[in-house]
Design goal:
The longest helix has 21 residues. By secondary structure, the protein is an alpha/beta fold. It is built from twelve helices and eight strands. About 40% of the residues lie in helices and about 15% in strands. The chain has one domain: 3-Layer(aba) Sandwich (Rossmann fold). Strands 1-2-4-3-5-6-7-8 form an eight-stranded mixed sheet, sandwiched between helices.
């Protein structure tokens, strides 16, 4: 493992963990003015020059005509399967991307080629959003949920990726094709993962010790790729992740060999009741897989970062779990 990777892992290890909340406050203070505000409209978002060419993919629904007068403070109305949506958190992650574009960093990546889109036009609704951490550090790919009907990136993708990148790791948010079922969505994740592996040097990310994250439907996707490999869904034959992070899903399928898994659920989840996920946790543990399980009171489905709820702070535990297993695998390989 390279020195840059070790630095990134050290940054999130228990012995030298970054206070990311303080970093976030500092970064906000250094920004001269917010680009967007909670009173900005969906039209302001779509028309922002930083998002030219891909602005529609920031929003949840494919090929939908949006009310451009809707305020971003009401964006939770576009996410029927999600809860605890905090508009200020949504806007902060969008502003982070605008900052990156303003600094000359590319934030949107087409992982399907022009020829692949021509062969299947629905692929124009897929892409990756890149939140950079330390150069050469491992990466995470986050698949937001939405019942395969929409993709809740604004709440369950961009804020999580922003938090991960502030802890030193690189993070990608997957915009997959919605409304076409789970198999197509998993094909998009497999294609995106393959793209990152093939372009890792240009992107400045390490392919060792990567992780897959997902919420709800996205957790099904992450777990399926981890269980069965990207090749089963049309991607390349790739090593399995160092860790999987699953949020509130009913997914119970378990493969022959599973990577370490972090699970977080809300006790009041009426869409994916905790008992369902607990069955999978028990199966993984019986198979010898290391599992960290968190169950939060008074929290419903689709809580994202969980800001303002009992789930707030789960992201620190999840990143530390990933870092622990990345470090453990390095020690095994070294020995």
């Amino acid at each position: 493992m390279s020195g840059a990777v070790r630095i990134a892992l050290c940054a999130v290890a228990a012995s030298c963990e970054i206070d990311a909340r303080a970093d976030g406050v500092k970064a906000t203070a250094q920004r001269p003015a917010a680009h967007l505000r909670v009173d900005s409209t969906v039209g302001d978002l779509l028309a922002h020059p930083a998002f030219a060419g891909f602005g529609r993919l920031l929003l949840p629904w494919d090929d939908r005509r949006y009310d451009t007068t809707m305020r971003l403070r009401d964006i939770g109305a576009l996410l029927p399967y999600h809860s605890h949506v905090v508009p200020a958190v949504v806007v902060s992650s969008l502003d982070r991307m605008i900052d990156d574009v303003t600094a000359g960093r590319r934030v949107f990546l087409d992982f399907y080629s022009a020829a692949e889109v021509e062969a299947e036009p629905s692929r124009r609704n897929a892409g990756l959003f890149f939140f950079r951490g330390k150069p050469g550090a491992p990466f995470a790919i986050i698949a937001p949920g939405g019942g395969f009907a929409y993709v809740g990136s604004v709440h369950e993708g961009f804020p999580i990726a922003d938090a991960i990148s502030k802890r030193g790791f690189n993070a990608f948010v997957l915009k997959y094709r919605a409304g076409r079922g789970g198999r197509v969505a998993m094909e998009d994740l497999a294609a995106a993962l393959t793209y990152v592996f093939r372009n890792a040097e240009a992107l400045g990310v390490a392919t060792t010790d990567y992780s897959l994250w997902g919420g709800s439907a996205g957790a099904r996707m992450a777990a399926s790729i981890a269980s069965h490999g990207a090749a089963r869904f049309g991607g390349a034959a790739l090593p399995r992740p160092a860790a999987v992070v699953m949020l509130y899903t009913g997914h119970v399928d378990v493969g022959a060999s599973e990577p370490p898994t972090f699970v977080a659920v809300g006790e009041d989840d009426g869409i994916a009741p905790p008992a369902v996920m607990e069955r999978r946790v028990a199966m993984l543990r019986r198979a010898g897989t290391d599992v960290a399980y968190r169950r939060y009171p008074n929290v419903g489905h689709g809580f994202g970062l969980g800001v303002g709820t009992s789930a707030e702070g789960w992201i620190e535990d999840a990143v530390a779990f990933w870092a622990k297993h990345a470090n453990r695998r390095e020690r095994v390989e070294r020995d």
